Model the fold of this input.
Amino acid sequence: MDAARRGTVTDFDREVGLGQVTDDDGRVWPFHCIAIADGTRDIATLTRVEFEVLPKLGRWEATSIRPA
Done:
């Protein structure tokens, strides 16, 4: 499951650094702020993004998140 996907950041809590991306197929992928590719650890909700998914800590998470 490492192919690039497209979606929208549907939730992001700057205080704890956790969020979620909903892909164009409607699947929801959690992420941690360190997965934001530009290193800023911050991203606005409703941002269109490209990302990949990888298994982490027993679940699949979005990673390499970058604006689309």
Notes: The longest strand covers residues 5-13. The chain has a mean pLDDT of 95. Strands lie at 5-13, 18-23, 28-32, 48-56, 59-67. The chain has one domain: 5-67.
